[in-house]
Design brief:
Belongs to the UPF0162 family. This protein is mainly α. It has 12 helices and 3 strands.
Length: about 270
């Protein structure tokens, strides 16, 4: 992993878009530069609303521009393909995984002069657009539907304190990136892209060092790539850190059957 990406991942103030670009280059190799495409879209959206005086009307026009005119409206997918986690292909085909779409939407919203946050409203990521002190819109990044007060109250019914649209706490940049890269990792494994998935786990471990479940997943990928020695070390770490986990108990029995031969370096 290059030093610039590692520095971004460990920074207290992460630029999510720049971090995504660096991570994509690390995982997939160099390709078309995505920043100019994202910036062109953000500039276009700003031009569409800058002559509107009322902030609430601006916000509603911006959401309509994105989901109708810019074709951000999508359907819910059971599984998101690898391409939907990459900036350029996702913009080209307008199929964006939830976390990536939230990151792009929040970037465009901020470029247009609003406060844009990514929030977790039970069961899904959503985007929070703050118009002013009185008006905040929380909307679904996939279909563009805004939450009503009744929707929010129902979803937040388990909360211990009163919730309104302004009080829904934004996720941290690291939390959002973890959700994005975790989804990408799962997609890469589904599509048998084990080497790329291994790099993706390295990115996640930079955000969440020594997580035993990530070490277990890395062990699985290394095992698939015939790198038994390092896989064994990761499996053993998981077993030691999570001895009560049923998977750890099963894995402990299997470790004895792993033959450690010459290590293949990845």
């Amino acid at each position: 992993m290059n030093e610039l990406l590692l520095a971004e991942l460990k920074s207290e103030h992460i630029n999510m878009l720049d971090t995504l670009v660096l991570a994509e280059e690390f995982i997939f190799g160099a390709g078309i530069k995505p920043i100019p495409q994202v910036q062109a879209l953000a500039d276009h959206c700003l031009a569409e609303i800058e002559d509107i005086e009322d902030e609430l009307t601006q916000a509603e026009t911006l959401i309509n521009e994105l989901f109708v005119n810019q074709l951000f409206l999508d359907k819910k997918h059971t599984l998101w393909p690898v391409s939907s986690h990459q900036i350029v292909p996702s913009l080209l085909y307008r199929i964006m995984s939830p976390a990536l779409k939230c990151i792009l939407l929040s970037h465009i919203i901020k470029h247009c002069g609003f406060e844009g946050n990514i929030v977790y409203v039970p069961e899904k990521l959503m985007v929070q657009l703050v118009c002013d002190e009185d008006y905040t819109i929380i909307f679904d990044p996939i279909v563009g539907d805004s939450l009503t007060w009744e929707d929010l109250s129902l979803r937040m019914s388990d909360s211990d304190h009163f919730i309104n649209f302004q009080q829904v706490e934004p996720l941290s940049d690291k939390e959002v990136l973890l959700k994005h890269f975790s989804s990408l990792k799962e997609a890469l494994i589904r599509e048998n892209e084990y080497r790329k998935a291994l790099k993706c786990i390295d990115v996640i471990l930079a955000l969440k060092p020594d997580d035993p479940y990530l070490r277990r997943d890395r062990g699985f990928l290394l095992h698939q790539l015939d790198c038994f020695k390092v896989a064994y070390d990761d499996y053993r770490y998981f077993v030691e850190q999570c001895p009560q986990d049923p998977a750890a108990q099963l894995l402990k029995l299997q470790l004895e059957n792993i033959t450690i031969t010459d290590t293949i370096l990845h």
